[in-house]
Design a protein that fits this description.
Distance between the termini of chain A: 59 Å
Number of helices of chain B: 12
Strand content of chain A: under 5%
Shape of chain B: globular
Low-confidence stretches of chain A: none
CATH superfamily of the largest domain in chain A: MetI-like
Distance between the termini of chain B: 16 Å
CATH topology of one domain in chain B: MetI-like fold
Number of strands of chain B: 0
Number of helices of chain A: 24
Helix content of chain A: 55-70%
Oligomer: heterodimer
Structural class of chain B: mainly alpha
CATH superfamily of one domain in chain B: MetI-like
Radius of gyration of chain B: 24 Å
Amino acid sequence: MTNSPPVSVQPLLTADGIPLKTSLQRSMRRSKLRAICLVLPPLIFLLGLFIIPIGNLLTRSTDDTLINYQLPLTFAMIDQWDRKTLPEEDLFEAIYLDLSSLNKYLISDNFSDAVDPSDPAWRVRIPKKGPYRDAMIAIDPRWQSASTWLPIHEIAMVGVNAQGTERERENKARRAQFNICAYLTPLTNADCTKLYKVLQAWDGASAPDETFFNALYKDLSSANKFLVGKSSTRMNYGKPGFKSLIKKSSRKLKKVSEPPYRDAMIKADKRWGDVAFWQTLVTMQEPQTTGYYLNAVDRKWNKDHEIELQPAERRVYAMLWWRTFLVSLIVTVGCLILAYPVAHLLATLPLRYSNILMICVLMPFWTSLLVRIVAWMVMLQQEGVINDTLVMLGLPDENRLPMMYNFTGTVIVMIQILLPFMILPIYSVMKTIPPNYMKAAQNLGATPAIAFLRVYMPQTLPGIGAGVILVFIVAIGYYITPELVGGKDGRLIGNMVAYHMQKSLNWGLAAAMGSILLAGILMLYWIYDKIVGIDNMKLG
Amino acid sequence: MALPAYASPAQRLWHYIYLTICSLVLFFLVMPLIAVIPISFSVSPFLQFTPEMLRLDPEAFSLRWYRMMIGDCSDPGITTVCSDNWKIGAKNSLFIGVIATALATTLGIFAALGLSRPIMPFRKLIMAIMISPLIVPLIITASGMFFFFAKLNLVSTYTGLILAHTILGFPFVVITVTATLVGFDASLTKAAASLGGGPVRNFFKVQMPLILPGVISGALFAFITSFDEVVIVLFIGGPDQITLPRQMWSGIRQEISPTILSVATILVILSICLLTAVELLRRRSERLRGIRPT
């Protein structure tokens, strides 16, 4: 080897004298920028209207602020309790005030770690029949100045000044009433109608008089009633019976206005004397809870902060998770068994025949899901096509098979609906396998069965993997089909999420179950990406 | 796949079993959809083949359920609820579907063009985000949107439904357009640029005609997704927003009448038309990009 010639230190230049490196970098940067500009609008759209809502849903699964908002005093004092004996008068007083007095809404910094239980403002009594002004100002003097009322007035004026048709203006007014309450009591869903009315006529400067405080009292009372209802539902998740305890005792405690409260409350409902209810309150003290997640797998926190099983009659979800997994597994395996021969046939037939058969595969794929479910109802019902055929073939009329509104129905319909998702990926892999391999294997002495098992099948594994994961992912989150054909024992976890979203309104639990489901699906999706790559996802 | 002449009897037998299994599976796939069609023409209000129908008695067939579907309630023999809801639903579904598809297609083309550029930072992550509406179960999407749209005052509005359906349809457009761009010859745009075309003009004159098949089939997917979507409508739609799937949903849940089968029949026929359209487009795309049909 000879020495290489000395390398030129002069940088390469482009035609206009700029070093090539700089010029290239600049053009790369420009190209990158252009790509980002193209992707940005859809990305922002998706982040804003899809990713953030889902993230927001997930935060609900641990959110326990509502109960803290309702019981600030109680939770500020419960740490001093020994958690074994019945609490003293001070804790009874705290929960009495938290449930029935409006002071917490009037104190400016009511909901934070800085709650000071010794602040006399908590114990100022607002007379039930008025006048309210003096008492409310005694709780927090900022209420006497007009500037405290100005932001509320502004919210009200949005509704008052609304334009448009009568219906639109009505909606805007209702929205404003809702927003006033949301400003004063962020976690309630009440409408502050009285304040809206009073503030309409206000000039925004004159000192607020008794009518203002009257309206404030009335609106806060209804908001508090709403909040008590909601938080007692939350307490009921911790211990059954809590809701009825709160409901019953708050009715009776209306007559009680003077301390001591302890005996009066136990007299109103003797469950207040049960330490177990107080111990449940301890588990709700943190504004973040894992309780919903535990509930979603039939567990709960006990008073010593240990995880324990739910009582036997409340254990439903573990079984549902298991059933969801089982249904998805059966559907996946069923699809695989049915799809494999069909994919093979499609891949090996001459094009003009396979195209016709392909229509059979794609037609259900393109048909509305609900149409397919209706079609299956026609097939599977008691008087349906399948049962009628069986009866015609000699099945006794009274032995008609129950094939719908049960586990079987869900599985049959789901297999038919998801079958194309299995056939298509396997088909596309089989298409690439040269038929000569099988012939070669047989020439070398393998029986057809061995040639298939050792030569053909291993080559189809990527397609099988893709199809299996795809079908499993889709099946595990299914909601519509089990809801319509599943009946009682065909319900899956998706149906439970919907139930808690729409019927029981236990949104925390719905969010927790959704999060677990989503985590599982993302994991499978990650595996899918490793095997197939999302870039290779094809449609049609 | 024909059997070779030298096949043994066992092989022959196996071959016929295999063909039987395949035809049974294909039958299983298509049969429910086919069975619906004759029953939708039945006179009887029951969802089954009556003995008269099996005898092909002309008296046993009628168009009464189709008349009911379009809101013609003059038939005296009908006891089930008859309303304009099917017509309203079809109109609303079309309206929402068309606008959502247009939005999804526009956004999807942007995204696909960006993702197909040679230099794109975080390509994988962005692609994953773009596809995510396909992966997340609808029930979770619907729950999340319910809370979020309630805050934005979009619940029970057409705007809310259209935005939600845009998101659901968007990944399909991204996938199909990205797929057409994979085989796209970049020197074509370079040639166009060297001939003096601006980026916008180049896009519409050179790139667009070539990716058009992908765009259209993506748009069809997006449309059919919106047209068939029920969970989101149930969660964030108000009582005014009757869409076709929603009407079917309540039809199935409350009182299932043959009217629903006539709607189903029409939708099956529609799906066959769409399927044909997509298939033709795919072939055209392959021809345009010079890929021989395989």
